[in-house]
Specification:
Elements: H1 3-19, H2 24-39, H3 46-56, H4 61-68, H5 76-92, H6 100-105, H7 108-150
Amino acid sequence: MSRWDIRERLARKWEEIKAEEATPERLGLALGVGVFCGCSPFHGFQFLLAVGLMYLLRLNKIAVMVGLNISVAPVTPVIIFASIQLGELILHQRFLPFSVAQIREMSGGSVARTLLIDLGVGGLTLGVVLGTALGMLATVLLRRRAARKASGPAG
């Protein structure tokens, strides 16, 4: 098999992957699922969760992976912080303290337990909210793009 044959097969496969489940609604869903997985508190397993849901729901692979990238390295601490604060707000109607003195007053086990529970509740909530919002936004934008393409060139 020549190098050109391999390139041609890869190009065909790339086009096939891009086109799979490519309606605006399915692409929006795929993006939303990726964002949900990226915000989930299962750090270290987010990719596996995304791949599992991608195959289970037969979603566009590229859109799921794009959504999953919400948790790239510079953004991950912000997502974790927002998840913990959201979890604390949901569970206790307050935000976690920011002062070192207040944190020192808590026992180590209490801090770990609080952070893990808050991260779980807040991360899942944040994932659902952001995944839904960004998935719906993608659907609307992709519908508009499809409508513009269908109406032909302007002018």
